[in-house]
Amino acid sequence: MSFLSFSRGFLSSSIAVRGKCVTGVLVGKISRFNFATSSQLQAEEDSKYKRPVQPYLRFRSDYIAKFKAEHPELKLQDLNKLLSEEWAHLDPEIKGEYKRIYDEEMVEFKAPLKKIPRKPPGVFARFVKENFSKIHLENPNLKAQEIIRRLGDQWKEVPEEKKKELNKKLEEDTKRYEADVVGFEEKLNEEELDFLNHLAKDKMKKLHQQKLRLLNFPKKPGGPFLYFVNMEKDNFPRREDENMKEWLKRMGQRWRNLTDEEKESYLFVKKRAMEKYEEDVEEWKLKQQTKI
Asked: What domains does the chain contain, in order, with CATH numbers?
């Protein structure tokens, strides 16, 4: 049996009967459950945060056992080369099924990611986005950097009234964005929230911090060294030839040279600030509960 015949037979046996007849073979939806025996795809099913398997890797997973049985003398590197050649010459209908499954799974995979609020672009960035394609079509040989430079020159000629209009639009978009930041977590179900906290951990953390700022969450006080710097900066001013980093380094050395007794007053200030912070947090929580 030829590889193409085997492929068509494999697909025919794993198709849900809702496809169409192509050259005498029913080509429809490849059943995703038929790949569960593959170690790679089994790992995908075991991990709910794993990205969908790409078409070629799914194809390789389906047929590598067959190729090993037919060519036991080949090393893995040679088997991979053989599979790559078969994939390159695979029937377009069969290859299309693999791609369609991948595309469907990627849409499902990315759905929660699309719910993350997107910060609106600034007025100049919006101007570039709206006019970049026009200049590129008129001057296809221009590099992107040169197009942006030209747009920068054009931006200088934009009337102030137009810029005010764009700024007003940006303010409106920013208000909508901030409202989305405050409320979007509540619109997610438990699975979506869990998914995003794993795959977009840094972004979710940043958005959560931004949400707290928008809701006027109390700011946590700094450490005792910061109080030392603020309280003693007039007594130890920066030298004329000293930058901020060098000055802070010198202040850090002074802090380390203080005795525990000398540090006590700054530690006390930090303690009182933390007590006030904790009171403010509790008050903030009560206010949030009354808004619900």
From this structure: 47-115 (1.10.30.10), 123-215 (1.10.30), 224-282 (no CATH)
